[in-house]
What we know:
Number of domains: 2
Strand order of the largest sheet: 4-1-2-3-5
Helix content: 10-25%
CATH superfamily of the largest domain: Mannose-Binding Protein A, subunit A
Order of helices and strands: HHEEEHEHEHEEEHHEEEE
Amino acid sequence: MGLFDAVGLKKTGLSIDWDLTPSDTFGTFESWGGRERVRNRNERFYYFYIDGWRTPPKVCLMERGIKHARVLAVIDAPQELVDQSIREQGGIISLDRSYAINQPLKNWLAENLLNRFSAGLLTSVVNKKEKDLPAGDLFQQETGIMPPPVSLPTVIGPLTDEQIRPVVKSGSFFDADINPDGCFTNHFIDTGDGLTAIDTRSGLMWQRAGSKDIITNRQAAAYCRKMNEERLAGHNDWRLPSLTEGLSLLEPEKNRWGLHLHPCFADSQPFIFLVHHRKPGGHWYLDFNVGNVFWASGHNPGGFARLCRAR
Length: 311
């Protein structure tokens, strides 16, 4: 078995594009082909990059095409090589915190994943089987004494870095960086459809899973339209969550899957889009791995969509 077999790609002739870097990808794949050899939407390119949003930063294998981005695997490369590659590029200061690999890291990847494949170094994302959504016994009951409903603070428009902190603090939301002692007490009940859950405190109905793949902000908007056209769980008013709606999901303690999230939710969407763009540039996300709000470009590598609606 080789690298591509391990991530579920059975096609022959696939190879790593060692010249492709994160800085190339927007002009190449979001603007219809900055490279002459990108001929159509079905072409796929494969490259390694460093995801600086992970703690610690990790090497990832990316599959890229026109309007397509998918992280195939996380690589357990020597951390000193990863950190050195980031330092050579000026440290964690870029818009996306997505870094090209340097020559020593390239040599290590070629030797350990291509010349002689070591399966233990690879955590597959594509082949990861989504854990079954838990049954109703993990939900609270809609009986007896329930916490009173609340109105989440309204947040509108693009948000600057300075605007995030007071919102987190004012709502007493948990954020591992901004407000580690915070906690929003939600109360999720099962709708019985296997797809959604209702928080009786915020009054929101939530999608328990979400988009299957890492997508761009434009694709997230398209995913939302598709779910509304298909009337997910019988409704057509689904949307991406606002900052405060997203923060209401963050739990101070990690669940059994290692996420700062109620156990009724799927683990396959570890970081999700919020509806807000960032001012002056970028997009806001919620990270259940780390337990915080962060920003990056909405294009590369993107995020996952989990939708909500008012009850």
